[in-house]
Input
Amino acid sequence: MRREGSPFTGLSTVALKEAADHMTSARMHLAMLLVLLTAIGAIYGAIGQIKNTVGQDPFLFLRLFTTARDPLPSFVSFLGFLLPLLAIALAFDAINGEYSRRTMSRILAQPIYRDGLLAGKFLGGLIVLTICLVTLWLLVTGLGILTLGLPPSGEEVLRGIGFLLCCIAYSGVWLAVALLFSTVFRSPATSALAALSLWLLFTVFWSMLAPLIASAAAPVDQFDPMSVVTNAELQQGIARASPFTLFGEMTLGLLHPATRALGLIFFGQLQGAVMGAPLPFSQSALLVWPQFAGLIAAMIVVFTIAYVVFQRQEIRA
Amino acid sequence: MSAPVIEASGLTKRYGRALAVDGLDLTIGAGEVFGLLGPNGSGKTTTILMLLGLTEPTGGSVRVLGFDPLRQPLEVKRRVGYLPDQVGFYDTLSARENLVYSARLLGLASGDAAQRIDRALSVVGLAEVADRRVSTFSHGMRQRLGVAELLVKEARVAILDEPTNGLDPQGTSELLALILNLKAEGMTVLLSSHLLGLVQSICDRVALFRKGRVGLVGPVDELARDVLGGAYVVEIETEGVDLAGVLEGMDGIAGVARSEDGRSRVDADRDLRKEIARRVVEAGGGLRNMTLTRTSLDEIYSRYFEQEEMSDAA
Output
């Protein structure tokens, strides 16, 4: 029971066409405008704040990404919040849109497999997201050089690129989620709503829910210190189910070189550590590696579910 | 008939407990225009999707151009063009861009593709609006663009699902002309429809579908003979004569039926107007009016299914 021919036939054609479509779509322009405006606002706020500080900082350039000035949040928290929205905007009608336009059966009657269509759509979205993020990253870096009058050091550039990769992986997860919903639900409105609900749940409510669930599952016993540890670990584990948490931890590890651990740490483990001393890049990368791998894994798992659902679907339109 | 282009045997598709296609046997030869006829929901589209490998049959086997659509779908889809019911295109792209996309999916070189696309667009009469967005196109234009796609593909088999659905009379006749053009290009055409009269004019052979089964297969004339006993109908209006009695025993007459307004209907297997007239006059009756019509497919269809209903009920 083997089928013949490569499943990747037509993959690049679909991906390039999707990317071209996204680039010219009004939806994408609006979403990008939103991201650009907030990003520029956040960066200006950060620059103003940085200029007011007189303390020494070997990683001043990275502060550009992470400094917040009231009432604006920092650039990274903006991205953590808005990147999913951008990804959802790209893919929420990827598959069900083909049905409602009645193009699905015509496209699948061309010599390609469904694999090629689905993967092509995902890849097309990812290409566009990557282009946008790289542009944004370059823009912010350029803005920083201009206003701070300070070129980034080699290490800062490395950390910046690491951050860029994390952003791509993070939006890739949401792209896969939106693609999954567009496969499962036949109406684009439903799939958009479902994706947005999940986005709200993970970015806003998850951090409130995690302690609740943890204290219900592993209540803290006043007389048992270990129960506090169990509770805290469980709480963190639950919080890490959200891509938003993982993204936050990655940016923390990469953009604050002094970060030594992302979980619980005992006093004994800190013996001999010079507090506040930055880690080298390789150590920071090691620190966020599990989070990064987790995001990639989530992306692949969600895409696989979408793939299975799509393969089993009846093509009737 | 040369080697069969499409060969299906015992093809079955089951959705849960409902049987959409039930043990279908079908053989279609090269260069034919073959019509799948039947009411909505009789399994025509399901059959087509199974021929293309877009739906997996529950049982039975299919061969299209010698390939198995389940195991070698790319080979099949490279050679078979499909125009779905109410075909859709990408609204934000122009007609030409839509065809360019299809041509890329086909793997055509861009120079070759551009040539084929220009030719196809002029054949279907869309050359002047080639660079307009498809969102401005009428239903008929979209349908013709779908035919253009088949031409670009240079398909050996064209499968059209309800191609004339929702078209105005002019659009319908234009599309039928285009379908005959496909045949002239050497394609084998398989089309499905519930509009029988239209199909009659262009199909070499038809298959009548009902509840997932093929009731009858053959050229329209042959079916008429089988079901109605004749391919010709003489409408006759007489005076002072018992027509059934007069025509009794006459060679080539399959039946005489009287309708309320004094007219009668005679089913015959050839043009018997002269003989009928002579008999009526010889019997002393008056002949007021007589017209000859070819049996329409609608009639075969409804008559056939009436018989089936009756045998079902029995």
Q: What stands out?
A: Chain A has twelve helices and no strands. The interface with chain B takes residues 1-5, 9-10, 13-14, 17, 21, 24-25, 101-103, 105-113, 314-317 of chain A (CB under 8 Å).
